[in-house]
Hints:
Elements: H1 18-37, H2 43-49, H3 54-69, H4 72-82, H5 84-104, H6 108-136, H7 139-170, H8 175-178, H9 180-194, H10 207-226, H11 234-256, H12 271-289, H13 291-300, H14 306-310, H15 314-330, H16 336-357, H17 364-379, H18 382-390, H19 398-431, H20 435-438, H21 449-477
Keywords: Cell membrane, Membrane, Transmembrane, Transmembrane helix, Transport
Subcellular location: Cell membrane
Pfam family, one: MFS_1
Amino acid sequence: MTTTSGTSTPELVGGKKPWPALFALVLGFFMILVDLTIVTVATPTLIQDLDASVNDVVWVSSAYTLAYAVPVLITGRLGDRFGSKRLYLAGLTVFTLASLWCGLTSTVGALILARIVQGLGASIMTPQTMAIITRIFPPHARGKAMAVWGATAGVAMVVGPILGGVLTDGLGWEWIFFVNVPVGIVGFVLALRLVPSLPTHEHVFDWLGVALSGVALFLLAFGIQEGHQQDWAGWIIAMIVAGVALMVAFVLWQRANKREPLVPLSLFSDRNFSVSTVAISVMGFIAASFGYPLMLWAQAVRGFDPTHAALLMLPMAMMSILLAKPVGDLTDRLHPRLILGFGFAISMVGMLLITWRLTPDAAIWEICVFQVLVGIGNAFIWAPTGATATRNLPMQLAGAGSGVYNATRQVGAVIGSAAIAVLMDSMLAHYLPGASASGDAGAAQIADPQAADLFSQAMQHSLLLPALVYAVGLVAVMFYERPQHAGFAAAPRSQPAPAAAAD
Length: 503
């Protein structure tokens, strides 16, 4: 393919053809994001069938999110260099084959290894989806297209546990991975036929940046998750400190690199891009963390099977689906501070109410009503965040911006899954000494009323973490500035807004 600086193929701009390409990409994107949370509801089953601890099973998710997050910065650039479509198809192939491997494993160690490979496939795919959408849609249609992409992420995060419950209960935990095989094949055929091959760009790859960011993230995630298990030994503390130091070194290197840094810091001169990266990392954290306490409570305290436990997520999923289009339509007309401020506030309230009612005698309808609130809030977060993040980025930074945006979401997910593992382990050790190490408390229903009450309290305190992180997101989105793109209802067109009114 001839290298050029063109931004899109003429036959796709302004017509209907970009939309079939979008939906082909969304199928694969949906699948890899479902796998971030699909394991959550199968936690008790995996504990029992694989003779594993709670922390071991959380590593089944953490290994995926870590392998997903570490390379995603460089894979965005690789798509710019070798072709986003080629990279997407290669990543989809790796992901599909690794899914088959996951289902065929019989030990938790082998499952973790297969999940690492699966995460690598996902990391190759994800930035290509966002970069392709940015390049094939004209500016006036890009907001709606990115809204579909962002809404897909939100829906996938809550559909994962539901699908995981149905498959685990009906066919066995292996099928939460086997189901990816036919979907992956269909997704490959659709992408091959419908997604355009776009012009490529020459890049100088920042391999030092890749090494610094990857090692830093691994040290931080491993140290945080294993800290409680290892009684916060000196070597654990040293890992965390080293991770922080390497992350600082990474940022300094990105500033000093005058050729082509892995993360062009100029991206963050756009305040809305910067705020969006904070907001999406918060959502990654929450999506990777809140399901574990809820699913363990439903199965260990209430005695639900995986399917019925997962159905607790259905109200949240339905609201995310029903509101995706109307909220997407708002992204071109309303200030993102209003949309996302409402979203984070209502989600935080809903999560706090769930935490309050997560008791052995709680009425299930109450939990479902509060899940509706969280679902409404999430619908006002996912799509607008994705649309706002990339709207003002120059086309030549599409790959870099996509990589950074997706990397920050995955960093949030890595830290979220590690943090919730530590917190649940600590809470179980406090309320039910001995349960945290063996995982027995989460493997079957707890018959003793006093133990059930104590287990519920442990899960309640654990759920306070995602509620608190929603509050962090709420504060962050208050810093959004007024969008400047053409067609925004509140933006002046004749002259720039005065500095005092820019927000």
